[in-house]
Amino acid sequence: NAGVTQTPKFQVLKTGQSMTLQCAQDMNHEYMSWYRQDPGMGLRLIHYSVGAGITDQGEVPNGYNVSRSTTEDFPLRLLSAAPSQTSVYFCASSQQVNYGYTFGSGTRLTVV
Amino acid sequence: ILNVEQSPQSLHVQEGDSTNFTCSFPSSNFYALHWYRWETAKSPEALFVMTLNGDEKKKGRISATLNTKEGYSYLYIKGSQPEDSATYLCAHDQTGANNLFFGTGTRLTVIP
């Protein structure tokens, strides 16, 4: 099993550009989430999904958009990149509620 | 959004020492408490998920306890080894939808 696959691993964007961070899991997990990791702060939840077709906002959703058209994929879209979105982004999936999350390897994004 | 606090922020122990750290969380709206281990250059890895007051979990030399009434959890490592060096994260599910609010972690260094 590949687990949770995130692409790309590294990305540099210019302010105002848009892009999509890809996340795919092959474990048939219902729950998927996107987190960002910033120095001195805990992982912060951006958006989450409890199943295909269902998404909702987390703690820091502004400037990001998600969709969940299949169980496997949960892309994160940056609509108009800002320097404040420079961060490491992690996608994670979980089989069901009260199960631990499996994390992807992360995407390091720099916005200049 | 209610804070999850972890202490200490970091600690160094000698190989063979036993150690423990604390995770504090709001006792209201409790659904689950997660512990993760995060090694440098890797992704967080789930250790335990605890849901009931008084829960105790064990995995090898690592164990955890949960007190939901007073809002804390302890993680214990018995006979620390250099390979235990990592950041240990706790996360609180306040919504029942497996949405996690993470603490900033305790960074453990085990000195050979």
Span between termini of chain A: 36 Å
Structural class label of chain A: mainly beta
Count helical runs of chain A. Answer: 0
**What is the straight-line distance between the termini of chain B?**
40 Å
Please provide the count of β strands of chain B.
11
Oligomer: heterodimer
**Overall pLDDT metric of chain B:** 94
- Could you estimate the helical fraction of the residues of chain B in percent? under 10%
**Roughly how much helix do the residues of chain A carry, as a percent range?**
under 10%
Low-confidence stretches of chain B: none
In terms of DSSP E residues, the strand content of chain A is over 45%
Largest sheet of chain B: 6 strands, mixed
Characterise this structure.
The complex is a heterodimer of chains A (112) and B (112). Chain A is mainly β and 112 residues long. Chain A has no helices and eleven strands. Chain A has strands spanning 4-7, 10-13, 19-25, 31-37, 44-51, 54-57, 64-66, 76-78, 87-94, 102-103, 107-111. In chain A, strands 2, 4, 5, 6, 9, 10 and 11 form a seven-stranded mixed beta sheet that branches. In chain A, strands 1-3-8-7 form a four-stranded antiparallel beta sheet, with no helix packed on it. The mean pLDDT of chain A is 95. Chain B is mainly β. Chain B is built from no helices and eleven strands. Chain B has strands spanning 5-7, 10-14, 19-24, 32-38, 45-50, 56-59, 62-67, 72-77, 86-93, 100-102, 106-111. In chain B, a hairpin with a 2-residue loop joins strand 6 (56-59) and strand 7 (62-67). The mean pLDDT of chain B is 94. Classes of the chains: A mainly beta (112), B mainly beta (112). At the A-B interface, strand 4, strand 5, strand 9 and strand 10 of A face strand 4, strand 5, strand 9 and strand 10 of B.
